[in-house]
Amino acid sequence: MRNVTLRQFRYFIAVAESNSVASAARMVNIAQSAITKSIQELEEELRLKLFERTAKGMLLTPDGHRFLASARKVLSAVADATNLQKEVPKLLDGELAIGVSSLVAGYYLSELVARFRRSCPNVKLKLIEERPDFLEHLLINGEVDVAIMLSSMLEDRQALVSETLLRSPNQVWMSANHPLAAKEELTLAECAAYELIELDADRMSVQMQMVWQRYRLKPKVLMSTSSLEAVRSLVGQGAGIAVLPDFLYRPWTLDAEHVDVRPLRDAVDTIDVGLVWRRGTTIKAEALEFISETREHTKRS
Asked: Which residues, including other chains, have CB under 8 Å from residue 168's CB and lie 6 or more apart?
C-alpha cells in the first residue's frame, strides 16, 4: 500500500478550493490528467469518497471536508518545520493580550495560538473573550493589543484599523427535508415565508435586521439565540431556517448530517473576519509577530 504524499495533499486542496480539476491544474501548473489520477489514488489509499462529481464541479463529501481540515494542518505543520531557522521571534519574551469575540473564538483562535506558541514560546499570552463593543473599548484603551473579530461590523472605524482575513458569504440553513431544500438557490423573500432561527451573537442579528429592512421584508422570528449549537439543532430538526455566514457551517459535525445549505440569490454583504488593532499607535513586537503569523496561516488555509 502506497503512502499518501505531500503532493497529493496539495493537489487535493487545490481541487477542494476551486471545485474544479481544470482550475486546480492551472493553480499547480500540471496536466489535468495528473490531478485526476492523484485524486483517484488518494481515494483508493484512504478508502474514502472525497468528492461528488457533479455538473457544477467537484464538491466535497462529508469525508472530504474532514480530510480537508486534516490536509491543511499537515501542510501548515510542514511549512512551520521549514521555518525553524527563524530565530528572531523566539527571542521575544514580553506579553501579548489577544482579544476575540465569542463567535470567532471556536473557529480561528486555537490554531493561531498554537502556531504562535511554537514560534514565540517565551511570550506570555493573555486571551480575552468579550462582546464586540467591549473589545473595541479594550483595544482603544490599550488593554488589548490585537483582536480577532468580525471586522465588517466595527463601530469605531476612526480609532481602529482592521485587516480582513476571510470574507464569508451568507447562506440559508435548513433541514434536509425542508421545502426550500428542493431549490438550488434562494431569495430573501422565499426565506421570509418561513420561520427564522436568528443568531444573536457578535452583532450578527443587527446586520441581518438591516438586510431584511433593505429588502422590505419582515421574517417570522421563532427564536433569537446567542447559541450557534441551538441554531444548528433547531434547524436540523426542521423548526425553522437560518441565514448565516458560510464560515460557521461545518459539514463534518453531527448536526450537519441533518442540515443543508443553499446560496442566496440576493446581494447581501459578506461577513468579514479580521485582525483589529488601535490606529495611530506603535504596535509592540509581539503583536506584530502575531499579525505576521496570522497572515501566513491564512494564506495556507
From this structure: 245, 246, 247, 248, 270, 271, 272, 273
